């Protein structure tokens, strides 16, 4: 993946004054690859132009131009500049602090939804482009002081002039994230040869760990809640690093089972062994067999570190033993440990699960058949072990092809999708290679330095993302929580994504994506969502940077 980025443009109209926002809306229709349409979002309204040209394919007769009716939105007040509807701090007092459930998704009821354009902060500028953005961003784009004051001594970030700089520090890597990742790679050689491709960083801070791994061929989902650390995920996305709002609390994360090759926690302070071990059981669910779990910080290296953790050596020894016992019961083995870093590996041996869970008194027990492993949209966490399905023999980390070969190898789980097979997968791959070529003719910015953060809002196999793999961008592949379960295929290819229901706001901040791509979303969700079409359209505007490109049906 080549790491470059670009600079969006802006448009100003006399009748509107300062800071206009433009969203180009490219329409995808039928089997035609040529689509057009521009959605203009301005500071005080957004207007969908009705001059959208549909270009017919060589086999079609006359195709009438696609007509889009103008849609106008009022602007939200300035207090909504960082509005995240389903993780809104103004609603926290409605929910309890037990297990930090207030930081989970709690979307407002329809009567309380804001359907308006989220304004940018005063002084907002087009984002700095990748790869420079990994190390700096405009202060006015993410104007947060608390995190700067609290974390500058740990070198998360520091403010200099009109920019935030990201030195790459962290609580557990005072010598910089690069040196820290080097230590982990020495413990996990599989990070060097393409075996490990996808990772999740729980409690990611400003995503320096995930940012460093991009140059090493590893694609990381950086996960953090909206909490007192303010806008960790917004900082990550402003830097051009994949990230999503989320927390392991009472509900499953929006990812399929057996998906990530590696999971990481650097002093994230998650109480892994409490509440029946449900937090670590969730890591087990989303980590593929043979995958690695990396933990640095308490209680690792407690014999030397306990004095700095405001605890006793006996308490830390007990915590470490509980953690080790829980991991052993889940068929994880301690792979390697050095200093503050410990690595466990999830077993790919079915016999381990059979032996460990054959005892009816085993704890945690095996989940019963009523627990769907991939159900991950408002699905409660349960204190039971999701074991790998025996019908899949080639999803373990040592069984799937290494990167980059795995990108185009037909995943075993393609059969989960209706009519899914090797031929359908190859056809989808070929189709998107062709379509992306046409997209780039219509939208020259695609593949250039102008577009970095991309979302495919209705993917199937991840073909759109695969066709763009050589470009300086990354793609968040979204699969409907009500549609065919194709997200495991996306992860088996070495790509990333999340489940989502487009009746609700996505788990991100405003102005965090450069391009939104829609293929068949209106048709697929028309009966459920698009009687509230205006809600989706306002979301499209809110998620985009000052200039963004959206391909739509």
Automatic annotation (TrEMBL):
One Pfam family named in its UniProt record: Methyltransf_29
Record InterPro entries: Put_SAM_MeTrfase, SAM-dependent_MTases_sf
A GO term for molecular function: methyltransferase activity
Compartmental location: Endomembrane system; Membrane
GO biological process, alphabetically ordered: methylation
Name the record gives this protein: Methyltransferase
Family: Belongs to the methyltransferase superfamily.
PANTHER family reported in the protein's UniProt record: METHYLTRANSFERASE PMT21-RELATED, SAM-DEPENDENT METHYLTRANSFERASE
Any one Gene Ontology cellular component term annotated for this protein: trans-Golgi network
Entry superkingdom: Eukaryota
Methyltransferase among keywords: yes
EC number: 2.1.1.-
EC class of the enzyme, as a word: transferase
Organism: Kalanchoe fedtschenkoi (Lavender scallops)
Keywords, comma-separated and alphabetical: Glycoprotein, Membrane, Methyltransferase, Signal-anchor, Transferase, Transmembrane, Transmembrane helix
Chief site of localization: membrane
Membrane topology: Single-pass type II membrane protein
Membrane-spanning intervals of the chain: 16-39
Keyword field contains Transferase: yes
